[in-house]
Amino acid sequence: MKIVVPEGGGAVGIYGFARPKPERADELERLLLSFVEPTRAEPGSMQYQVHRDVADPSTFVFYELWRSADDLRAHLARPELAHFQEHRMDYLREDLEIHWLTPLSVTP
């Protein structure tokens, strides 16, 4: 799956699910958490959160909020994210599930 950021002006949000292979879950958790601080420091990053699903702790849930689609595209082009996208199925039992959001109540 190639991540294609929708066109449009203004902020863009994402939530999604990563369902790891059982034997790679701890490794995937460390990898996802390693993205948090660098991502939060990027221009245009308004929120970047990684969670575990309470009902299914084997599922990671992520939430991102970006100032613009261009900022998100720049984020996805970073080497570590491009590498993850290319190798994600080494960790996942099924591909990422991504949902796009149009934020209605963004605090500047």
UniProtKB/TrEMBL annotation:
Organism, as annotated: Nonomuraea jabiensis
Keywords tagged on the record: Monooxygenase, Oxidoreductase
Alphabetized InterPro entries for the sequence: ABM_dom, AI-2_Isomerase_LsrG, Dimeric_a/b-barrel
Domain ABM: 12-100
Single GO term (MF): monooxygenase activity
Pfam families in the cross-refs: ABM
Gene3D superfamilies assigned: 3.30.70.100
UniProt protein name: Quinol monooxygenase YgiN
